[in-house]
Amino acid sequence: MKIAPLMRSAALVTAVAMLPLATAGLAAVDARSAPQFGKLFATYQRIKASYVEEVDDEVLVRGAIDGMLAALDPHSSYLDGSDLERLETLMDGNYQGLGLSVTSDDGAVKVISPMRGSPAEKAGVKAGDFVTHLDGKLIYGLELDEAVAQMRGPAGTSIRLTIFRPGRDEPLDITVVRGVIELQPVTSELQQGKIGVVTVNEFSRDVGEDVRSEVRKLRREAGGTLKGLLLDLRSNPGGSLDEAVALSDLFLTDGDIVSQRGRVKSENIYYRSESVYRGEAAPGVPMVVLIDAGSASASEIVAGALQDHKRALIMGERSFGKGSVQTLLPLTQDSALKLTTARYFTPSGRSVQEGGIEPDIAVPQLSDPDRAKRAKLRYRESDLRGHLVNEINLDDKELEGDTKEDPRFTATPEELEKQGIKDFQLHYALETLRRAGGTALLAQRR
Fold it and tell me: Which of 90, 42, 2, 423 is nearest to 230 (CA)?
């Protein structure tokens, strides 16, 4: 990973690369911009002289910075003090709170996904929920960082979330007991038929190495030979770009993994296979990768690389569609900019911005009783205000293809429950691998 002293790159919905701050000093302001800066300074002077109450300079400067960044895209932001500390604890994978990945949607706090096994997930919070009140106090319009800070607290304390859930007429009150969130980035389980399932929950430090260890463990449990491997990236909001490259490299031996392209030449980087690991972690083993609308950024890098190289069959639902790279640029010892500096592209040159990764086989989550209601208000990058537009100008009709019902998938949640199927997407992927018969699935992809 690219780590600067006392500062680690991390994010829940973004792939973050670390770059050094230029030491040559600030670039001179273009003469044509001088009038605009004049307006900014004039506004500052008028506020200081005439506002109804005295305003601290720090408040005005912070507001100006936040306003500039908010005018760019949803993923650029200013971080200082506690915000940087939270970034660091997220990278370490250990903090106290609810275990929610959230974003701001027109002033509302919207849940991207609850982390697996977290207090929020156990209490019933779901992806797509809007959190409107905390302990009865309205949080609409708050800065996202402030709302997140209120949700966090010592383990063992409780907080009441008032939630608006699309598809329901009345708001829900859900009480969550905060816990110590010791994220398990990677878990695994050997399924019937010697099929290994590796679940990657988020891309924090050493995820590539963790997956390699889990694959080795699964092989031992299978008696030395795996018949199939399922990589579950559903509801994985992303994280470290370097770890996405490392995980992809475990299963690729040739060609590019991902490229990032920015406005300046120094930001154009190609990440190639065999740069992190030599050889394959599971040579010749048929693979399926599961994704859904909560699979974002780093998850999309992995899915796109394995799809383009025909190393795995991608199943599930179209992913989130977050195809930009954020760079953490230090300003002072305790402040930094998280700035969008590049777009990333899959090995074949595809940008996933807005459109996401389209699965080879679209499999709806039939075991979810709220699936139909949730699908109507499904939330992706293209729904964010101010999001970057895909350079190839995708037709909206192309992005709506995953809303069409597939006549092959008609079972109801009640019917599946009677069969003991609690996770239809996982069940379908496992059955596909069991039917694959060794290398047949790989041949199908090629």
Answer: 423
Separation CA 218–CA 207 (nearest Å) = 16
CA 182 – CA 184 distance, rounded (Å)? 6
CB 329 within 8 A of CB 337: yes
Q: How far apart are CA 221 and CA 201, in angstroms?
A: 22
Q: Which domains does the chain have, with CATH numbers?
A: 95-182 (2.30.42.10), 186-324+343-445 (3.90.226.10)
- The pLDDT assigned to 352 comes to 87
Other Cβ atoms within 10 Å of 24 Cβ, number = 5
Report the sign of the C-alpha dihedral through residues 381, 382, 384, 388, in that order: positive
Output the six-digit token pair for 253.
């031996």
For residues 318 and 358, the answer to whether their CB atoms sit within 8 Å is yes
Confidence bin at 347 (pLDDT 50/70/90):
very high
27 CB burial (10 A radius; 0-12, 13-18, 19+): exposed
Tell me how far the alpha carbon of residue 12 is from its chain's centroid: 5
Indicate the pLDDT class of residue 310, thresholds 50, 70 and 90.
very high
C-alpha 39: how far from chain center: 38
Residue labelled with tokens 């394959």: 280
* Structure token digits, residue 174: 């859900």
pLDDT digits (tens, 9 = 90+) for 366-425: 888 776 666 555 555 545 555 455 555 545 445 455 555 666 777 888 888 888 899 999
Least confident of 49-58, 103-112, 389-398: 389-398
CB of 408 closer than 8 Å to CB of 179:
no
Structure tokens, 194: 């010697």
Q: State the pLDDT confidence band at 12, using cuts at 50, 70 and 90.
A: very low
Distance CA 276, CA 278 (A): 7
Q: What is the DSSP letter of 27?
A: P
Nearest one of 212, 364, 360, 194 to 288, comparing CA atoms: 360
Give how far the C-alpha of residue 231 lies from the chain's centroid of Cα atoms, to the nearest Å.
16
Q: Write the burial class of residue 89 (CB in 10 Å: 0-12 exposed, 13-18 middle, 19+ buried).
A: middle
- Tell me the C-alpha distance between 223 and 218, whole Å: 9
pLDDT of 438 over the 60 cut: no
Q: Is residue 141 helix, strand or coil?
A: coil
In this structure, is the dihedral angle defined by the CA atoms of residues 51, 55, 59 and 64, taken in order, positive or negative?
positive
| Residue partners of 436: CB distance under 8 A and separation at least 6 | 228, 286, 444
Kindly list the catalytic residues.
Answer: 297, 308, 322
Contact 262, 341 (CB under 8 A): yes
The identity of residue 391, as a single letter, is E
